[in-house]
Amino acid sequence: MPPRRAITGRSQEPRQRFVEELRLRRAHKGDSLRQLGAVLGWDWSLFGKMESGQILGSPDVVQALDQHYGTPDLLLTLWELAAGDPTQFKERYRRYMALEAEATGIQKYSPSVVPGLLQTKAYAERMLILGGFAPGAELDQQVEARMHRRDVLSSDGGPQFRAILDEAVFRRALPDREEWQKQLMHLNEAAKQRNVTLQVLPFAAGLCEMSNTDTSFLRLSEGRTVAWVETGYDGKLVEENAGVERLQFSYDRLRDHALSPCESAEFIQRLLEEAPCLPLDSK
Q1: Domain limits of the chain?
Q2: Is residue 8 predicted with pLDDT exceeding 90?
Q3: How far apart are CA 13 and CA 10, in angstroms?
Q4: 10 Å Cβ neighbour count for 97?
Q5: What sign results for the dihedral spanned by CA atoms 12, 18, 24, 29?
Q6: Beta bridge partners of 236
Q7: What pairs with residue 107 in β-bridges?
Q8: Phi and psi of 163, rounded to 5°?
């Protein structure tokens, strides 16, 4: 079924409506893409990608466009509708992944599962199967992509990475005890890297503001920070300063209750020693 249209002839699908309005406002203003970029201080290709529907752009860019076109909050409202459209989850995640690849710093809180950047192959495969992938070529490709993604932590000039893992992460083991020990050992080995800090949030810390939310912060090369907030069913890229700051304060309070990096390494080591099934130096 084609997108529903109002009597104005304009699309009522949120993303397409936003794109149409961007094109319409620039046409009325008489700007070229290059002129728009020069006036607002962003690369003109950014506006071209927004008008072609490739990206939505950030709230700061959209607010600048509203001011330039004299349309107070019109474009920002349409942007919020497009960004909140459930069908846009995959695109929002792709944008997050692209930003993660260029981030100079990553901070993460995981309430229930090992973060992708710290997963072993067996753990990644298990998570993807639980997410709906059937054994086969597509699953294998997804696992390999996740393993390749891990390389960012060990690459030259890799980001500074801090992960706070809830104790629940360590109480939800893989069915295969041998593979679970490999995952625990991988976490301890990863934490030995100079750019990686790993902390455990114990159950004794009680409830926290982020108890149900997987949250990541990306510090980008231009100095700004964005956040990715994900539940089991949806994810949101937070780019406005106020929203990121609020989440950052919550993360800082969470870190105050976490075990120190040294205590966290000892916590994981105790788990390894409780039910050994592999030599502790096993690869």
Answers
A1: 14-84, 99-115+159-274
A2: no
A3: 9
A4: 13
A5: positive
A6: 229
A7: 162, 217
A8: -125, 130
Q: Give the 3-state secondary structure of residue 225.
A: strand
Instruction: Quote the percentage of the chain above a pLDDT of 70.
Output: 88
Kind of pairing between the strands at 235-238 and 105-110: unpaired
Rounded average pLDDT over 163-182: 94
- The C-alpha atoms of residue 83 and residue 92 are separated, in whole angstroms, by 8
- What tokens does 72 get? 């107070």
Nearest to 173 by CA among 277, 262, 254: 277
DSSP code, position 109: E
And the tokens for 256?
């105050």
For tokens 């046409």, the residue is 27
pLDDT digits (tens, 9 = 90+) for 42-90: 888 888 888 888 777 777 788 889 999 999 888 988 887 776 554 555 6
Overall fold of domain 14-84: 434 Repressor (Amino-terminal Domain) (1.10.260)
> Kind of pairing, strands 105-110 and 160-166?
parallel
Q: Taking the chain, what is the end-to-end CA distance rounded to the nearest angstrom? A: 53
DSSP letters, 154-223, are: TSTTPPEEEEEEEHHHHHS--SSHHHHHHHHHHHHHHTTSTTEEEEEE-GGG---TTTT-EEEEEE-TTS
Question: What is the pLDDT averaged over residues 129-138?
Answer: 83
d(C-alpha 99, C-alpha 190), whole Å: 22
pTM here is 0.67
Do strands 214-219 and 105-110 pair parallel, antiparallel, or not at all (unpaired)? antiparallel
